[in-house]
Amino acid sequence: MSTPSNQRIWLYSMQTQRGAQSFHYLLITVFSTGLIFFRIAPVVRPAAVLDDRNETPIESSTTTATLPEIAPNETAHEIDRRDADPVVPEQRAESFQAQQFADKTTLSGWFPQIRSDENSSWRIWFSRRSRALMVQIGIIGFILMTNLGVTIFAVKSYGSRNGVGLIYEGDCSTVKRLDQWLHLLINLLGTGMLSASNYCMQLQAAPTRENVNAAHVKHKWLDIGIPSLRNLKYLSMWRRCSWALLALTSIPIHLIYNSAVFQSLSSHNYTVVVVKDSFLNNASWSLKTAEDNRAGDYGWEDTRVNPSNLDYEEVVRAIQRNASIYEERNISACFDLYDDYFNPQGNAIILVKNETLQSPPEDSLLMYVSIVPRSDDWSKNMWALGNGTGHFAALSPPKPVTKWFLGPPYYEVSRCIVQPPEGLSANCRFEYSPPIMFTICIMNMIKAAIMLSIWALRRWQNPRKENQAKEVLYTLGDAIASFMREPCKQTVDMGLATKYDFLTTRTLRNRFIRSSPTIFQKRPQPRAFEKNPKQWRSSASLRRWVIMLAMCLLVIIIAAVLLTMSFVSLRQRGFGVKIPQLWKLGFGALTPYTYLVINMPRTDPGGLIANVLLANLPQLVLSILYIVYNTMLSTFLVQREFSRMWDPGNRKPLRVSEPIGIQRSSYFISLPLRYGIPLYASSGIMHWLVSQSLFLARIRAITTDGSDDDVNSFSTCGYSPIAVFVTLLAGLLLVIIIIGMGLRRYDGTMPMVSTNSLAISAACHVLREDQDGGYLLPVQWGVLSMTGGVGKCAFTTAAVNTVKLPENGPDRVYK
């Protein structure tokens, strides 16, 4: 016995799908072959308008109808089925009607995956939103345990003083490596935490069908499938509050997480005296004479040298008393010792060469200066760099130094005697902040608690089984399935409507006047089809593009200006700004020439808090840019998914968040993994690059006896020019990528709906044959009927060869 023709056609359309990857497609092929030998009850039912004898469409006369009033109890399907064709083309196109619709009830006997209660596969189990949410809770729980465990271990093992604990003290290169690797770990944990939080925020910002209906009644639209602030107005109080709490707890993480650990470099205080030879023989001296001699030289009497808390009489007397144990060095070695900000440096006695100055031997102190670590971006050894001219450059005098002059009197240096470096320490410290780490743990706990509450509430409500109006429309597939089951009354006969039809144009004159989109101000008219392959960029609004590009360009311009200013500063000090020269300054390394010079507190604890916030402010900006970037890319891909649904070779079940039967599952909301993983990875790399570009730095001042000088220690922000340069290039690359993706083109067959819920609903006014279970089966968009030159476009399960595509031409319009 042969299989009925209508049955074979539908099964054949299932066999010829491109890209079918699930096991049930193989079963379809097997069963369609087997049906040649067995007589099986019809799988599909013909449309009501077909002639049962020859299955040919019955010609219907063309009539002009007026739009009757909508009855209060009239459904959208009943409205759809009306014969309301106000536009009659001069030449009638060939009439036809889609037929051979798929039937879930009959097919479920052959393919168990179609049954609504078939949910045993791992694919479907994992893709459930409640279980996907549990995965995110597991991620954030793991990060919480890691943060809490590390914090408790650090506090118990290392302790703290004034809010700062010491983890390691020793070799500076070891400290730099620790700093780079731990910041990489922090950014990985931070990216994971914030990604899980953003996932949950997007779940909470997704509208329910009830929310969408409430907006549509007011002729407003909501966003489907992307993070959106537009939707918040229509959400329940709990969902808005949980969304806000997740957002608010992210701010402290952005602002302080990268400063939980930091490096602290040591720099020594010292005093330099320029003397006659007789000074070593305990000759007399006068501070007044020395101060007069140095007058007018910025490096010897600047306000940031010679701290007022020292007794200089005692300091000079101690140097003269201990001169016998100091070590002698030649001019070049002496200059090199004090030319490095972080070298172990002690007091120095510099003897002049001028013979005429040696007599009389009295008044042996010619000049003096007391140096402490500077908190600006000028060298610590400004007293040495002027070379007696009053002009300062980092490479002056030229090396190797054979002639060296000091101060306005232009004293020529003969030799110097320095405090032995063996008794001085130049160790660096790797420190942490317990208050910051505990704050991160608290924010992490709040996020975990909110996410657990969301999961528990979802389990308790179980919206799909109790009330379809409470069903959340996370993805495009969720929205199409919902509108196929219950079409939207507001978008009847708008099958070719685009997102542009539902926008309200406002001018300066009427910007405060609320009005409906033009399409709702008159009766919907069938429209001619025009295939228009728009670029991906068209799926996003102009405002969204302006916001994203303006933010990106503003950040890039600010970074470029700061980088240029740093180049100018380095050139003024005699440094080159070519890539090899910048690399020598260090990637993410602190140097005395790369401090931020701004009017901020320097001393702790105020200095620490202020500089932590400043150093991490770019992290917050970067996270906001990530959300905007993610939204833009998601918008591209939502329209891409929609625009491919006309292709009969691409006919597939809908991709939904809670798959039933053979519906496709989704591990994501809007970004497929092949887009999401690179985006998350690039976000983590960008956060790490930013942490190496601008960072918290603590300078620990050490006195000549090796004790800490808390008065002259300070916190500041350092920057790395080479890291800023690399970050700038990476940011430009990401902007170029998103612009380049925006230049790709959609096919243009289907309307440009983007994420607009009204436009999506307009394409989902299915025929009655597809209302019951069509959303559970492979669907295709196209023209389902043509009567009197007026066609109807919607999604359907009808056989491939009975669904046509809209065509250009004056003899046909579509609704």
From TrEMBL:
<dbReference type="InterPro" id="IPR046623">
    <property type="entry name" value="DUF6536"/>
</dbReference>
<feature type="transmembrane region" description="Helical">
    <location>
        <begin position="237"/>
        <end position="257"/>
    </location>
</feature>
<feature type="transmembrane region" description="Helical">
    <location>
        <begin position="608"/>
        <end position="629"/>
    </location>
</feature>
<feature type="transmembrane region" description="Helical">
    <location>
        <begin position="722"/>
        <end position="743"/>
    </location>
</feature>
<feature type="transmembrane region" description="Helical">
    <location>
        <begin position="23"/>
        <end position="44"/>
    </location>
</feature>
<feature type="transmembrane region" description="Helical">
    <location>
        <begin position="436"/>
        <end position="457"/>
    </location>
</feature>
<dbReference type="Pfam" id="PF20163">
    <property type="entry name" value="DUF6536"/>
</dbReference>
<keyword id="KW-1133">Transmembrane helix</keyword>
<feature type="transmembrane region" description="Helical">
    <location>
        <begin position="582"/>
        <end position="601"/>
    </location>
</feature>
<protein>
    <recommendedName>
        <fullName>DUF6536 domain-containing protein</fullName>
    </recommendedName>
</protein>
<feature type="transmembrane region" description="Helical">
    <location>
        <begin position="545"/>
        <end position="570"/>
    </location>
</feature>
<feature type="transmembrane region" description="Helical">
    <location>
        <begin position="133"/>
        <end position="155"/>
    </location>
</feature>
<keyword id="KW-0472">Membrane</keyword>
<feature type="domain" description="DUF6536">
    <location>
        <begin position="131"/>
        <end position="280"/>
    </location>
</feature>
<keyword id="KW-0812">Transmembrane</keyword>
